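Good morning,

Both structures are done.
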Amino acid sequence: MSDQPVVKAEPGASPLPMDEDDLYEDAGDLEFFESTPTNQVGSLYLARVPKALWKSWSELDDDAEIQIGTLRQWYDSAPDGTMKPRMKMLLNSDIAQHQTVPREYNLDITSGVDHHFVFTEEDLPGYKAKSKARTDASNNGLPLHILRARAEKVEKPKWDKNKPYYRKAIPKKTKIYGKIAYELNCAPVHAEEQRHLLQAQTSEAFRSGKLQILDRRNGQILLTGTGRAADWDSNFIKSQPKPTKAKKVEMKTIRIPESELMDKIIQCFSRFQYWSLKSLRAELKQPEAYLRQTLEKIATPGDVAPDAVDGDSDVEDDDEVKMEDAL
């Protein structure tokens, strides 16, 4: 039995018909947005909101058009003569999900954000039309087998339980929707209001807590006359071994992302107006040089406050920091 030789196809010959998977497969080309004066997708805003606020927004209906609040933007003149943009957000009080979060927020603007893009996906045209026909048939009460073309029955391979089952993914078309040019750090205006709401949520969590039994052990009965009952007092009190002093380990800190560090710094200054560098380093557990570099962007050095966090009155002026008026 001789093998059939493989004949190379001629350049002018018609190609073989495409498989269905190849027909609806994405070519891999990434589309970019069109930056025009009327299409401002090249200067998007990325807002970092508190976790409680994001949780309340996630409970809203996605399909309903709801006005969650209003934004106010103005410009303040800096000492060097430049105009600094300022923004503030006020939430609507008639929404039930806003009753457990502060209503007024300051938005600290950071410009010059690089390498941040927003992507979007949509169904491929061929797959979308095919799916729409099935949806219309289902809505009209027609069985789906009418839309399927009759094909010759082929012998299917036996099902192997060791072979994992997977469902074919819906082919998508990826596109860059826009570029992020500004970051907004969201912080409540009134720290006392936020502290009061957090205390109310903590109290509610304690009231709704239930008793949980970690382990069940049956009691032991000492019978009179047994050897175990005779020497019960010898093992009643056991001397604890002297604890060994642990060796001092040099504290090593790992840098976290700068955006996450900014969020933690804003949370600290929402609790107290003044912080010493020593207290911030103990609170955030970050290297001093990295902490100073980040503080220069959102905080300014100030005089020693009488109600400083660490209560130390002999702290140097350059070690005491205060949040800017934006917070």
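Second structure follows.
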Amino acid sequence: NEIKVWEVMTNPVEYVKDDDTLDKAIELMRSLDIRTVPVVMSDGKVKGVIGMKEVIDNNWTDGYRSLADMNDIKISVSSVCTNNAESISWDSDIETAAEIMCKNGISTLPVLESGSAVGVITQYDILEIVAACRQREMLFVQLSGLSDSDKEYSDQIYEYIQSEISKISKVGTPSSLTFHYGKYNEGGDRQKYSVSGRLALDSEVFTAKEVGWDIAKVSNDLMKKLTAAVMERKDAKDTYRKRKK
């Protein structure tokens, strides 16, 4: 089963506007510890990308000798960014993303939907997938949309997943599992979680959604829903085989 770009991309996308100054782009790359960011126009369309290479190439001759010297560069991003940069569609597979990166010698790709930036995928995202597959015996598990404060629950969520996957593995071979987390306000200051799950098992795909206040409980309930769907499908197949006999 192909793993899609949307399953592993970083979202929401961090970007600079084409009329931002270069020092803002530098600060963003420093804070995120990345080398490239998309440049977006006022209509939301991607104009290009800017990276440390463009920063250095365009400022080294102006007397700057280190990034520490470049704290007050009032040059517009649009004047130095790379236009018509490589990008990839949100529904492409990660193999295509890796091929584009290798062919063009780049480490980051803006992810587009209808021409607008919806995320970013990097070579590190792809390497993490390879490592995850090896560590989990070719089961790729991805949790996307988690805020920094929510990530502290990752270990607990993985425990719930492992518990249910052990049951699912008795009836089939799971190859990928993705959870995407969203939040929304339902009155007051508290935020409710909305989680969608997608499980690829043999030649079939199972999906489910769950909503609740507790991220750990929502994740556990969602995983149990997927397990129940798999078992229900197995029972239906068994019943069909018995009838055919």
